[in-house]
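Worked problem 6 (solution included).
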Amino acid sequence: MALSIATKINVRIHLIFSIMINRELFFDTVRPSIFNGALTQSQVDGIRVILNEWEEQKLKDLRFLAYMLATTYHETAHTMQPVAEYGKGKGRKYGVADPVTKQTYYGRGFVQLTWKGNYEAMSVVTGEDLVNHPDRAMDMKVATKILFYGMLHGSFTGKKLSDYFNDLSTDWFKARKIINGLDKAALIQDYAEKFYNALKAV
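Solution. The predicted structure is:
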C-alpha cells in the first residue's frame, strides 16, 4: 500500500521523537471508539502494561504499538488480560499432552502462544521455564515480553511488524500474517486503525 507524502512525513515524525503516551487522554479516546464507552479496571491495567513496555523499550513507530494493542484486543476477547485458549486446544495437535513434560501447549497469553517449540523459544526470551510451566505465559509481565519480542522479531510465523509498517508501506490487513495468516484480518485492521487514531490524537 503506497503512502502519500503527508503520511510519510507523519511516519517520520513518529520515528524521530521518543513517544510518551498521555494515559488519561488515551483512555478517553479509546473508550468510545473501541470499548463501547466503558473500560474496566482490568482492561486499563492491561493497556497500561503494554504502554509501559513500549516506553521502556523506547520504541517510536506508533503503528507498531497500535497493531500490538489491536492484536491483544482480539486475541484476549477484548479483556486486555492474558487468557487461555477456549477449549485448551481440544481437537488440535497442540492440544495433546507432551509425552515427556506431560504439559499441553495450547494458546496462552496476549497472543495465544501455541506449540512446544514456541514455548521453548519464549523460555529463552523471558527467562521463564515455559516448557515445564507453560501457565507462566499467563503472567502479565511474561505475556507482555512474548507479545513484544514475538511481533518485533517475527518469532511466531517468520513475519514481523517492520515487514508491514515501514517508510514505504502501511499494511494493516496483511500484518495479521505476523500471528495467524489472514484470519480475521479485516476485523483486526479496524481495531488497529482505531487504536492508531487514538494514539495520534494524544
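Discussion: Helices lie at 5-16, 23-33, 41-56, 62-75, 116-126, 140-153, 161-164, 185-201.
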